[in-house]
Amino acid sequence: MDILLEKIVAGEAVTHAELEAEGFKHVFMEVMELIRVEEASVDADARFQRLVRVQLEVLNGLPENKRGVFLEDAFSMLLRKTQSSHEFDSLVLAHVLHVVDTLLAPSIHHIDGEALKANPPLLRQCKSVVGCVLAVLGRSAASYLQQDHEPTTTAQLETAMTCLLRSGIPVQDILRMAKWKAYSQEWTAVVLPNPWTHDDDDDDDDDDAADLDDNSDLVDAMQRMLLETIPDACATKYLHNPAWSDLGLAVVAHVHVMAAGAVPDTTALDTLETIAPYAQRLLEHDDSAVKVSGLTMVALLLQRHLSSTPTIHVSIPPTNFQESQSTIVGLNHFAQHRVHRHYSRLLFQAIMTAMVTLLDPADRAKALRVWHLLVDVIDVPSRFTVLATLVQTCPYPNCVAVVLDRLRTDVARHWAGASLSFYCSSSSLLIAQAVEVYATSTALVPFLCEMLRPVPDTEFVPRSDACISALSLLRFVSLRDKTNVTGLRSHRDLHQQLAGQRRRLTDLVVNQASVAKSRQDSHVVVAPSSPTTIPGAPQPDCGDELIRLQLMLAAFDAALATFTDMDNPVTV
């Protein structure tokens, strides 16, 4: 063994017979140790790359049914040694492509997808190849998501996609992984709500830890039983739940959407439901450029659908945003319901968060455009529920104002049935449902009452944008509802509620004006009490707070003027 290792370190050629004589497994472990202590280098003649090439020869000598675990270890070591710099990605991807051509191609060339599923050892190798490629894409996601790639990055991305296409696992199955993981987690959470786990940081669970170790076989058997029982809802059950990089998967989804279907056999994946989890992952990234890439992916996908089908509407049931009031029968239906809820709600929330957290005004404007585009593809009967839920759950008051303004625009479009044909393709059912949503008090008026509920004095300024938009919506509906069909104009409780807030607001304006004048006369500068909603943005001074309060007071006056309950007038 020592003589063989000396030849390997010196860069001398070693034969297959020499490796076999010492035992492929033993040689593999020794070479792994040499790689561990060697410094990574992009030089093809460096010792590090020579050791990697020898390791591939050793892997080629191992039997196929035992090679998977060694291949995983080899990739893991290679990724760990090359994680310090993006320049090593070319080395890793070239090696993975060599692995595919050397180890996988002879085996997967003559079998179809069903045969691959029936060959667990070969499938394990294919999954390790995909996992390595996704890890590389995920750790340098910002570079691969740029609009204008460097030539080197473009070549790396092409190599990565080539590896995925030749891995034996269809790209459509790779892109369905987010949906499958979400489905399996929801399904398992119902069947096994309290899984048997152990927290290593909890010193009080020593007995539980011992029990878990003693019954590890039982736990493994239970997990296998669950996997066998769960329905194959996405046709990806054969992959189990691999620990692939979520960010790497998002990069692949971005490449697919931006390439307009350049990846074969993935046309059916151009759906919001499939792409949404990856767009959400990009939007939640800390890097602003990555967030913008997520926005671009959603915008391009929606624009492509709208250009090919101008009357497209995405039917999102109200239960996607609110808890279902009816009984859901069956674990499969319940898990599907939960998955739909997550993808719809979380994508909207991620885009709205980007509208606030992006620092560049142009990027925030783009997020706003994408958000409006996403709302446009939701059919009218679902749209009110979506917007109302977003208003009630969004933590950013200025985003709440945007949603309320959009809701006011939809009321203007769909109040009269005659105008609905422009937006709903003259569908009588949609028209009737839209009139029910916007022209009756079953949803809109209770929503306005909730939005304009009394708040503490300290919340007037932070909620000023949302409050002014809600008052504007109320006034708009009242003016549009000439015959008081909704009962809004004579809604006494809401009138009293607004009148009370208006009196409190008047006192606040007087007090704030007095305090501002005193501070101005004494040249005292005091930080405002209300935090900004945009991180890093300048805080408003007390004069700005006074202006906000005065604008709110004017909005309250305009809204109160629309009430016409003359039999029992409320004194303001």
Features:
disordered C terminus; Glomulin/ALF4; 572 residues; single chain; 27 helices; ubiquitin-protein transferase inhibitor activity; mainly alpha; Aste57867_20122 protein
Question: Can you put this structure into words, describing what you see?
Answer:
With about 575 residues, the chain is an all-alpha fold. It has 27 helices and no strands. About 65% of the residues lie in helices and about 0% in strands. This is Aste57867_20122 protein. One of its GO terms (cellular component) is cytoplasm.
* Termini gap: 96 Å
Order of helices and strands: HHHHHHHHHHHHHHHHHHHHHHHHHHH
- The gross shape turns out to be elongated
Helix content: 55-70%
> Biggest β-sheet: count, sense, barrel?
none
Mean pLDDT: 79
SS class? mainly alpha
List the helices and strands and how they pair.
Layout: H1 2-10, H2 16-22, H3 24-37, H4 47-61, H5 64-81, H6 89-108, H7 113-117, H8 120-139, H9 141-144, H10 151-166, H11 171-175, H12 177-191, H13 206-214, H14 216-229, H15 246-258, H16 272-283, H17 288-308, H18 331-357, H19 361-376, H20 380-393, H21 397-414, H22 417-424, H23 428-438, H24 444-451, H25 464-480, H26 492-522, H27 542-560
Helix pairs in contact: 3-4, 3-5, 4-5, 4-6, 5-8, 6-8, 6-10, 8-10, 8-15, 12-18, 15-16, 16-17, 16-18, 17-19, 18-19, 20-21, 21-25, 22-23, 25-27, 26-27
